[in-house]
Amino acid sequence: MDEIVHPGGWSSNRQPERAETVYYGEYKCTGKGATPATREKFVKQLSDVEAEPFLVLDYVEGTKWLLPPPAVPK
């Protein structure tokens, strides 16, 4: 992530109630914009186990629109 990423990692666009329902997880982010210490309190740094469900093509029905499917290292 480049430094252009907001330090909090999330903007409520002046609607703070959104923070009560958002799920914001980061996984193995690197770069100047990847600073977990400055993230909003609800931002979660995902472990390998927590991120696994999001790393499969079925999560976004990717087998229907991603051709060819990417090789995901195990």
From TrEMBL:
Q: Residues of the signal sequence?
A: none
Name of the featured protein? pectinesterase
Q: What broad taxonomic lineage does this protein's source fall under?
A: Eukaryota, Viridiplantae, Streptophyta, Embryophyta, Tracheophyta
* Assigned EC number: 3.1.1.11
* UniProt pathway: Glycan metabolism; pectin degradation; 2-dehydro-3-deoxy-D-gluconate from pectin: step 1/5
Parts of the chain that traverse the membrane: none
Q: Provide the family line.
A: Belongs to the pectinesterase family.
Q: Name one GO biological process term.
A: pectin catabolic process
| One Gene Ontology MF term | pectinesterase activity
Q: Where is the Pectinesterase catalytic domain?
A: 1-62
